[in-house]
Amino acid sequence: MARSGGNAVDAAIAAAAVSISTEPGVCAPGCGGYLTIWPPDSDPVTLDGNIFVPGRGLPAKPREEGGIEVSMDYGGGVTTIIGPASVGVPGGIAALGAASECYGDLPWKVVLEPAVAAARDGFPLPEACHAYLLLSGKLIFGRAPDGYNALHHADGRLKSVGELIRVPHLADSLDRLARYGPREFYEGELGRTIAAHIQGSGGSLTFEDLNSCHAIPRPSLKIDSGLWQVATNPAPAVGGSVLAAMLLLMSKHGVTRWDRDTLSTLIDVQLAVLTYRRERLDLSDQIEADAAELLNVSDTGDARALMGAPSTVHTSCVDSQGLACAITLSAGYGSGEMPAGTGLWLNNCLGELELNRRGLMAGPPGATIPSNMAPTTARATNGTVMAIGSPGADRITTAILQVLVNYFQVGMSLREAVEHPRAHVELDGDLGHRVAYEPGLAINELDVPQRAYDGLSMYFGGAGAVTWSTERGFEVAADPRRAGGTWSSVEQ
């Protein structure tokens, strides 16, 4: 996209479109998500394309019909709901289309060409996808014949890492989307096929739901952190507010290295903010007010005052004009639903229970599903511009936090900041907690419940970050925990 004259938004959209098309199990075209864009000459904006509750035009009925509860040994064990009733209205394509129209330089058709080509030629099965599909390949992604056959050999064995995957009809659907525009997903033949499949299977998603799906532009949530201004995802999403609160709290401490005191502070901050989130934000009926209170208290620096899935992809891009774009998209754990003849897997975000605690009865049609996603951009007083984000369910915010602390406060290079070991506070249902951590952090020296990993793990996210400045040019870093990649103009 850069070589074709595109800007950071074009490149980020193209990369995101490839990711949702070529990372089966990790994400899917039937996703939702957010884009945070910070132009060099105006305020940052976040395009809200999150999943919302379906059911427009239907009589009120229990949504449990068509929902299938499954349990997997993923991340210590997870229970989720799949099937047609778990599918929410997918706003991801709408958000990508709005960003292309308002901020991109290249035509939509050109931006989607790499995704169409990858689907038509086939793509190697990524390692992160393979790890998840070992647990979910038959259970979830075996529900659709085309999807199952694309991922498995004739004898039922899951294809290996690097083996070629061709999902039947996917290239044709993406090509149709490229030629007719993003509204084809919501108002055209693709939209009609998706809605007919879900309606015929007992789910709630209707063609009227798809027609009503448009990206919502919102002023990004902005905070100061040292020499940086940080812009991230605002309410009604919770991920940006949680990230901002933790960053504000950590900024009050003179962090210069990861010693015992810093680790203890990190655990206290995560525990306070994540507990507040669970108790106040996840089921809030006044999310903007509760998020504002979280930020106000965090700005005091007193964490104590708050006490009371590989299911995501992320792309970060900046350009030499100072335009920054961060995109995070999620399809949950996957519903297993693929409308015949489309090659398009759909989300299970209504059934992602650890995030959407209200489950299939998440609210009336049009209600927004809670989200951990926090695509983030930042500018420093010296003119450096950054885009950053991560997949990783409830580890998204703690992963981004630790990268930013490493870069802003400890003084690591961007690559060092991304590759440094991480810790994450895990909450259980009885308000207890334990600290999961990677080797290289002295958590074992602290008197806290803990769970050690043997090495760097995709459980702790997959951060991608980029910076640009006139003095240093581009600096790029992809997380070794996932098979991410980087590119900059110096690599031409």
Short description:
The protein folds into two domains: 8-26 and 52-214 and 332-361, no CATH class; 218-312 and 373-485, 4-Layer Sandwich (Glutamine Phosphoribosylpyrophosphate, subunit 1, domain 1). The chain has 14 helices and 18 strands. It has helices at residues 8-22, 92-103, 108-121, 127-136, 145-151, 170-180, 184-187, 189-201, 207-211, 239-251, 260-281, 287-298, 396-410, 414-419, and strands at 32-38, 45-49, 68-72, 78-82, 123-124, 164-165, 216-219, 221-225, 228-232, 312-318, 324-330, 376-380, 385-389, 423-427, 433-437, 450-452, 464-469, 473-478.
Q: Measured on Cα atoms, how large is the radius of gyration?
A: 21 Å
Give the low-pLDDT segments: none
Dominant shape: globular
If you average the pLDDT, what whole number results? 90
Largest sheet: 6 strands, antiparallel
Q: How are the strands ordered across the major sheet?
A: 8-9-12-13-17-18
Strand content: 15-25%
Oligomer state of the chains in this structure: single chain
Distance between the termini: 12 Å
Q: Specify the helix fraction band.
A: 25-40%
What number of domains? 2
Structural class: alpha+beta
Q: What is the tally of helical segments?
A: 14
Secondary structure tally: strands:
18
